Amino acid sequence: MKSAGGISPNLSGATWRSSTYSGGNNECVEVADDLPHVVHVRDSKRVTGPVITFSRAAWGTFLANLG
């Protein structure tokens, strides 16, 4: 599994959960925010596909500006 930047993060210790913003319609993203320093996001339908990695600060800014 590679992140959007082409780097393969070590996600062996990640715990994935559905995003609370997904709405429960099976078209959602999953978030792994239990690892130090970063938050990983993936498409729930493509769990072996690409992963987007955010710094905790960037993720916090993203969440603060959702709406």
TrEMBL record:
Q: Which domain of life is it from?
A: Bacteria
Record-annotated DUF397 domain positions? 14-65
What InterPro entries does this protein map onto?
A: DUF397
Q: Where is this region: Disordered?
A: 1-21
Q: Where is the composition biased (Polar residues)?
A: 9-21
What name has this protein been given in UniProt? DUF397 domain-containing protein
